[in-house]
Amino acid sequence: MATIVDVAKRAGVSTVTVSRVINEAPNVNVTTRARVEQAVRDLGYVPNVAARSLRSKRTRSLALIVPDITNAFWTTVSRGVEDAAQSQGYSVLLCNTDEDLVKQQRYLDVIVSRRVDGVIMAPCDADAAKLAPLRNHRIATVLIDRRIIGWDLDMVYGDSLSGAYALTSHLIDLGHRRIAMLSGPEGAPTAEDRIVGYCRALADAGIEPDPCLIRRGGFNWRAGDELTNQLWREGNTPTAIFAANNAIAIGVIGALGKLGLRIPQDVALVCFDDLPHAVKFFPFLTVIAQPAYDMGANAAQLLLSRLESPVPLKPRRVVLPVRMVVRYSCGSTLKEPQHSTLSLPLEGLVPPREFLVKPLAPEESAGLAGLEAGRTTDGRRRHGRRTAPLAPDKPDLGRLRQVFNFREADRPPRVELRIGGRNVYEYVLERPLKQEVAAGRSGAFAAPPEAQVEFAQHVGLDAVGCEFAWHAETWADDAVVSVTDMARLEPAPLAWQLGQLERYLRAAQGAGVGVFASFSGCFANALRSLNGRGAADLPLLERVMDLLAAHGERLIRAVCDRFADDLAFVLIADDVANDQGLALPPELFAQLAPGRLQRLIAPVLEHGVPAVLHSTGQVAAALPFVQQAGFRAIHGLDPAFNDLDALHAAWAGRLVLMGGISETLLIEGPREKIEATVAETCRRLAGQGGYVPGSPRGISDAIPPANFVAMIEATRPRSQP
Question: By three-state DSSP, how is residue 474 classified?
């Protein structure tokens, strides 16, 4: 059996270096890391986990405690947790409590004895005293889908209150007045939230909630069956039933069938939580869909970031939005010609309607403990940034918001797509920086988020970018030649990417610096992956584009669901143009690009965040498609290929122009010419808002630091020294 000494000898390094690679320590040379990892694979070396845990006091294991693993919601949550944990080298111990406090206590004892590093759990009730073993042993804990009283912890849950309000309001709009609420156990926070939302919707519609129509039981099908039969036995028959989760809804369906009642003709039915597999074959239930996988991934990210943080973190609360999916069971399609007379239609299906449920403002949720914490008076999450105006050379996110709304700011905002050069950081901060590996760009320099925010404060950048990317495989060197090759194009783990953005936001909190999220598009990457064969193999090109668009939409939705209120804007980097114009003939471009770009930014627009497209080349012919897709701004605009004045005249008030300062000028200078050119460009384009000056591609080490500073200084108001 190979030892660590054998691995070190084969890789030509010390055993200390091998240990650092195996333990994923930072600041290991990329080439050295690859050599050690290859030696590990060649020799089949397996680290001694027990010995490592004794030395590090870490077991690289987590526990996940859920109430019912047979429920599709919890199965999906578990997958989100496991994927996130595995991506960071952690294993997961799964515990199922069946909402039984005795079983929960047994599992807590097991968890303590196994010395797991952290716990993600949905506790049986809201009593923090029941979790004493975790607290007493200082085991890092994240709550999911539940809240407790008496212990301030990281929490992740869906917006049950707003979802219940929306679902009940939908039934009221369909004409229902007697709506039964079949909820979970008394005292369970999610069950109580859904009852509060239900009652609030009734009250707002002028309907007095009837206590006889509110029933509590377990979150399982047996409760649905039993509570439905209770209503009919007692003569409290409703015209519609709101089931607090999908398991209860299954019991309701069975009970109504035995009573000879049809859904929705006799009784309408809606519920919380979708049935992710069944809905593909049987799209029937109108639901509030929670992002179950994302809840798991976010919970794991919170836990892992706490475990890896060198400093204590304040407890964080993540409330993810929910979506209403309107199908048949609510009865909304009864009068449509496509509707079947069958109770459960299988043919002639009307496409479901899905939309984001906007969170209720705190005053609308009065009395619901904890939901309003961390939100402002308009219902948006607080992020702690100052809102008072700052001096013109200080960063201020408000400038970007003014310009994105085509209003003039005290000075043009300063934003760079990427600051990728070590030299400029060290020039401004006056100290050496440690190396970090940029996501998706193997070996590239990336300053830590904390250093980027500090840099922004020094030079007055109003926002810094967090780049979301695929793994470090380069598209040009790893071309797709068939559909099977697409399996290689795997993204970085969701939880890791969420953790990176949280790190940026934590660094920017209170600094006045905004954070924008940058994502790869689906057009240029697909063309590059086919090494120029795109037009010749159109079916494969479309398949690759659809793969990238699906991944991008999925990732952007997860990011916006959690962080939309904290983002300055979302940028999609996609070179839709080249030096001569559109990257493809106009007819083919119109067929391939706009719809997929629109799909990418649909979650961005849903949350009301400005969307920006970055493209190199001559973009004039692409701008009608860009604006129609919903983008607020276009970034790049190298003056070597674009007439900035013509673009400004054509798109003023409709598209914000970003970039426009020649990269050649920034590289070659001289300083006086940079200052004069930048000042004149800002004078022409920024007078009435709608322009953000900057380099077309970002700042690299090819640009002398002094020239970058000259560009920044030229954006100051003339009256400022």
Answer: coil
CB 219 within 8 A of CB 67: yes
What strands, in cross-sheet order, belong to the sheet with 463-468?
Answer: 463-468, 514-520, 570-573, 611-615, 633-636, 656-660, 691-694
Question: What pLDDT is attached to residue 470?
Answer: 60
Give the pLDDT means over successive 10-residue stretches in the chain (721 positions): 83 84 70 86 71 59 95 94 91 94 94 93 92 94 92 95 97 97 91 95 96 95 96 96 95 95 95 78 84 96 92 91 94 66 51 88 52 34 36 81 92 92 90 65 71 94 88 44 55 84 94 94 83 72 88 93 96 94 92 92 96 96 95 96 95 95 95 95 87 94 94 80 48
Distance CA 300, CA 317 (A): 13
Q: 679 exposed, middle or buried (CB, 10 Å; 0-12, 13-18, 19+)?
A: middle
Assess whether the previous peptide bond of 264 is cis (omega < 30° from 0): yes
Strands laid side by side in the 154-158 sheet: 91-96, 61-66, 118-121, 140-144, 154-158, 317-320
As a whole number of angstroms, the distance between CA 127 and CA 527 comes to 56
Q: Provide the Cα torsion 563, 564, 568, 574; round to 10°.
A: 100
String of DSSP letters for 25-67: -SS--HHHHHHHHHHHHHHT----HHHHHHHHS---EEEEEES
Residues 6+ apart with CB under 8 A from 342: none
Question: Which are the contacts of 29, defined by CB distance < 8 A and separation ≥ 6?
Answer: none
Residue carrying the six token digits 């809840």: 295
- What amino acid occupies position 552? G
Which contacts qualify for 389-394: CB closer than 8 Å, 24 or more apart? Answer: 390/512, 392/460, 392/716, 392/717, 392/720, 393/460, 393/716, 393/720, 394/457, 394/460, 394/512
Sign of CA dihedral 684, 686, 690, 696: positive
Instruction: Please state whether the peptide bond connecting residue 449 to the residue before it is cis, i.e. omega within 30 degrees of 0.
Output: no
For residues 515 and 466, the answer to whether their CB atoms sit within 8 Å is yes
Residues β-bridged to residue 241: 180, 269
pLDDT of residue 221: 94
Closest alpha carbon to 530 in 607, 568, 583: 583
Task: Identify whether the C-beta of residue 146 lies closer than 8 Å to the C-beta of residue 300.
Answer: no
The Cα angle at residue 562 between residues 380 and 552, in degrees rounded to 5: 130
Matching residue, tokens 């936001």: 505
Cα–Cα distance, 594 to 599 (Å, whole number): 9
CA 677 to chain centroid, in Å, comes to 39
> Which pTM value belongs to this model?
0.83
- pLDDT at res. 471: 44
**Token pair of 29, please?**
């040379």
CA distance 504 to 482: 38
- Closest by CA to 517, choosing from 475, 472, 573, 470, is 573
- pLDDT for residue 54: 44
pLDDT for the residue 428: 92
How many Å apart are CA 289 and CA 323, to the nearest integer? 5
Question: Which position has the token pair 């310009």?
Answer: 403
DSSP assignment string, 396-458: -HHHHHHHHTT---SS---B-S-B--HHHHHHHHSS-----BPTTSTT-B---HHHHHHHHHH
> What is the C-alpha separation between 510 and 507, in angstroms, rounded?
8
Q: What pLDDT is stored for residue 387 in this prediction?
A: 34
SS3 542: helix
Q: How many CB atoms lie within 10 A of CB 383?
A: 19
Asked if residue 133 lies in contact with residue 112, where contact means CB atoms within 8 angstroms, the answer is yes
